[in-house]
Design a protein that fits this description.
CATH class of the largest domain: Alpha Beta
CATH architecture of the largest domain: 3-Layer(aba) Sandwich
Strand content: 5-15%
Shape: globular
Order of helices and strands: HHEHEHEHEHEHEHEHEHHHEEEEEE
CATH topology of the largest domain: Rossmann fold
Low-confidence stretches: 394-406
């Protein structure tokens, strides 16, 4: 179930590619215990509850799918879990939704097959605060103040992240001077809110909206009158479509993902295969999500002795147990499902062991039409933070003392 049309179509196209590449690789090696896998795609359009539930029912009732595996569908708020739970099939997604924890933990028997292959949206908030504190405390960046401005889109995903940021800020010596201000999205008009943000003279500006095109316009309008601020744009700035719009004015932006592509040998080999298969205009940093989920599911189903279609509760419970019991080294890093949440455990936001958690990756756009620089966390970072080009060159003022260090 992927948004092939609508505001998230750029990501949806990559989720589709990730599934296709994974299935091609699995089938070349003999399929799932000798059975070839066949993908069927349903367009979730604007990702409303009605559209996503209809897509799930269509896949189950018309195509008898054994599993639904995709990237995110932000909007249905778990309503699609109902037809999936009724059918007793596996559902592996990257919805990045804290509500997933509550749904699964409240009725683990009914939702045994629902897995979130990335950490919940909530972890973006404290993870970002820890990141900017790390930049400050390691001397990579000297902020002119302790002020943070937070702008949020109107999706629950964005609002959860914005409030999590605000809640974590004081504990690391930061003060929220603006927001979280919720802006009705999608939108390309940010000038009014940016004028209000500039009036507070923040050291950090964070926008937790995630549509790549909307964020590109936010950055272009910020650059009309830039301030000496780090600019963080949630997730969407990773996408090639952001850079296509923002071009050189996007250089300097920080972006993060709780499920991204590593720059190690495994990640590089995957990126090369992905670009060779789908062309230089594709984005392996996005397609890696569904690619890894597809491979992990196939591994678990093989360990369980095979997959099961709708109504095969006993067999699919075995697959679910294999998913929970197998720590999978993906192109994104380690996927280890929490035994109660059935969501990936994040590093370093929950576990401090990089071999037991999926890394929350921070990137910076450091050059136009060049790969994003991976600047955190250790030991996965391959580059260092660079001062954004819009910041002036005057000496920074002395930062207030007495802040708690990360």
């Amino acid at each position: 179930m992927v948004p092939l049309t609508g505001p998230s179509a750029a990501d949806g196209a990559e989720f589709r590619k990730g599934v296709i590449l994974a299935i091609e690789e699995i089938n070349v090696r003999g399929g799932l215990l000798g059975r070839r896998l066949e993908p069927v795609f349903a367009d979730t359009c604007r990702q409303t509850a009605e559209e996503v539930v209809a897509a799930a029912r269509w896949l189950i009732e018309k195509h008898d799918v054994h599993a639904i595996i995709n990237g995110y569908n932000i909007g249905p708020q778990n309503s699609e879990y109902e037809p999936i739970a009724d059918a007793g099939i596996l559902y592996v997604h990257a919805n990045t939704l804290l509500q997933h924890h509550d749904t699964v933990m409240n009725d683990p028997d009914r939702y045994f097959g629902c897995f979130m292959t990335d950490p919940a949206d909530y972890w973006y908030g404290p993870g970002f605060i820890k990141f900017i504190s790390w930049l400050r405390d390691t001397g990579q960046w000297t902020p002119e103040s302790d002020r943070i401005a937070i702008v949020s889109g109107s999706k629950p995903y964005s609002i959860v992240i914005a409030h999590a940021m605000a809640a974590a800020a004081a504990g690391f010596g930061w003060r929220v001077c603006f927001g979280p201000r919720i802006v009705q999205t999608p939108t390309s008009q940010w000038r009014d809110v940016l004028d209000e943000v500039r009036a507070t003279d923040p050291a950090v500006i964070a926008n937790t909206h995630f549509y790549s095109g909307d964020l590109a316009h936010f950055q272009l309008q910020f650059m009309e009158k830039p301030t000496n601020s780090i600019v963080y744009l949630q997730y969407g700035a990773m996408h090639q479509s952001f850079s296509d719009i923002a071009q050189k004015k996007g250089v300097g932006v920080i972006v993060s993902t709780v499920i991204g592509l590593l720059r190690d040998d495994i990640g590089k080999r995957f990126a090369a295969r992905y670009l060779a298969r789908f062309g230089e205009g594709s984005t392996p940093q996005i397609g890696c999500q569904s690619y890894s989920a597809m491979h992990h599911y196939a591994l678990a189903a093989s360990l369980a002795g095979g997959s099961g279609g709708p109504g095969s509760f006993e067999q699919n419970r075995k697959v679910a147990q294999a998913l929970k019991g197998s720590i999978y080294r993906s192109v994104n890093g380690i996927v280890r499902y929490h035994p109660e949440w059935q969501a990936a455990v994040p590093y370093p936001d929950v576990t401090h062991d990089p071999s037991l958690g999926l890394p929350h990756l921070f990137f910076q756009i450091q050059a136009e039409r060049k790969p994003l620089a991976l600047i955190a966390p250790d030991p996965f970072n391959t580059e260092r933070f660079v001062k954004p080009p819009w910041m002036d060159r005057r000496a920074p003022t002395v930062v207030e003392s007495g802040r708690r260090r990360s």
